[in-house]
Design goal:
alpha/beta, Rossmann fold, GMP Synthetase, Chain A, domain 3, 2 domains, four-stranded antiparallel beta sheet, 12 helices, 33% helix, globular, binds 5'-O-[hydroxy(phenylacetyl)phosphoryl]adenosine
Length: 436
């Protein structure tokens, strides 16, 4: 089913005319309301009036995650706080996290786009949706929740964790759809089986999975473990949250980007030049309807391709392929985004620890694990005379700080001074062994 038939199936030329009008408005608006954009545009020698066609956007400067951090928390908002009704933040970040704000109308648009996603998955008001995306600052929980309500479905606000209870609810409430990260879906299937529950015979028909990379192999595994259709949903907090794009049941080959609200470009991450459809590159988003926190040419760092070929479902919106990687070093550990530099910041706050560390990421059964190997300083080694208790305390402190500041559960291993590899060029501190 198509939730918003009119806007999701607009002929391309009509869609592009609408995009241009909205783009011109938003570029004017940010230039006059957000100091950051005024400076950035002036420095690049461009003016809002320069947007005469969609292609003119390519002359405008990019916005990066660093720009968001530099303007933490509310520096890029384009409306006064009195118009902001909700704040959310990207996960796993301390201090300089990215904070996003929404006006009432922004929440309204987001709810509609999430409702479009559920409809694309074949859901309607008769469905019961088990929402196991985390509620809180993370956009997954509330984003999916409002969309499910907008659709008129019955939503179960489970949030993440408490797996046994989730399995009980899945049995007792009989939801027909589930939303969570793909790795958590596998985890639920596995724990359910361990509890002796026949997970293939639940009422579930469809799963809406995203927030982390996954493969067709994982899709097959989830579909057969839960006996459902597994669909991909994509989004990022900065641009809105979940529901920026969604696979339809017809195509199952790429996610339609809701282009009446977002302009999408694909660029060469090295040179920044715009690439044609079909080529692999980094996604760049411009929000053309957001009020509180509009973004111009935001570099997502997500690598994929765009496919403009018409889809059997009738939607005219371009499809993006699954995310194939990132053009930065961000890791997603059990749905929590974390940069090695943030782990480093936590480590360096602890006395007796050297700035030499290695991160080993693995997927054990269905769960991501991260081990942090870090060198003890020689000074501490000498002072403690290698006493085990001192090292154990330090390990405990690091585990706690990683949880408190970054929201990740890490295994910490203290290693001897000078035992980790040293780098001559760019340090490569992450060993990612996950076969996704
Ligand atoms: O993960 C929003 C979301 C919630 C999407 C629930 C889907 C479902 P962030 O925490 O800001 O927002 O993380 C955004 O997660 O740039 C991608 O690298 C990654 N990501 C999101 N969806 C997918 C997906 C939410 N379907 C970052 N496949 C993005 C691969 C994804 N990666």
């Amino acid at each position: 089913m198509i939730y918003n038939e009119e806007f999701e199936t607009l002929p391309r030329e009509v869609l592009e005319a609408l995009q241009l009008k909205r783009l011109q408005q938003v570029v004017q608006r940010v230039y006059h309301t957000v100091g950051f954009y005024r400076t950035a545009f002036d420095e690049a020698g461009v003016k809002p009036d320069d947007i005469k066609s969609l292609a003119d956007l390519a002359r405008f400067p990019f916005t990066t995650k660093q720009d968001l951090r530099d303007n933490y928390p509310f520096g890029l908002f384009a409306v006064p706080m009195s118009s902001v009704v909700r704040l959310q933040a990207s996960s796993g970040t301390t201090g300089r996290s990215t904070v996003v704000g929404y006006t009432k109308r922004d929440i309204d648009v987001w709810s509609e786009l999430m409702a479009r996603c559920f409809a694309a998955a074949g859901l309607n008001k008769n469905d019961i949706i088990h929402n196991a995306y985390g509620y809180g600052l993370f956009t997954g929980g509330l984003g999916a929740h409002y969309g499910a309500e907008r659709l008129g479905a019955s939503v179960i606000p489970m949030s993440g964790g408490n797996t046994k209870r989730q399995i009980m609810i899945l049995q007792d409430f009989g939801p027909t759809a589930i939303c969570c990260t793909p790795s958590y879906a596998l985890n639920l299937a596995e724990q359910g089986r361990a509890m002796g529950v026949d997970m293939r015979n639940l009422k579930l028909r469809v799963g809406i999975f995203g927030a982390e990379p996954w493969s067709d192999k994982m899709r097959d595994d989830i579909e057969s473990a839960l006996n459902i259709t597994a669909l991909n949903i994509y989004g990022l907090s900065e641009v809105m949250g979940p529901g920026v794009s969604m696979e339809c049941t017809e195509g199952r080959s790429g996610m339609h980007v809701f282009e009446d609200h977002f302009l999408i470009e694909i660029i060469d991450p090295e040179t920044g030049s715009v690439l044609p459809y079909g080529e692999k590159g980094e996604l760049v988003f411009t929000t053309i309807t957001k009020e509180a926190f509009p973004l111009i040419r935001f570099r997502s760092r997500d690598i994929t391709t765009l496919n403009i070929a018409p889809c059997r479902c009738g939607r005219t919106h371009v499809r993006m392929d699954r995310v194939m990687g990132r053009s930065d070093d961000m890791l997603i550990i059990r749905g929590v985004n974390v940069f090695p530099s943030q782990i480093e910041a936590v480590l360096l706050n602890i006395e007796g620890v050297e700035p030499h560390y290695q991160l080993i990421v693995e997927r054990v059964d269905t769960l991501d694990t991260i081990e942090v190997q870090v060198e003890v300083s020689e000074k501490l080694m000498d002072e403690s005379e290698g006493e085990v208790r001192v090292l154990q305390n330090m390990e405990r402190r690091i585990v706690k700080d990683m949880k408190d500041y970054l929201g990740i559960s890490a295994k910490v291993k203290m290693v001897e001074p000078k035992s980790l590899q040293r780098f001559e060029g760019k340090a490569s501190r992450v060993i990612d062994k996950r076969q996704i």
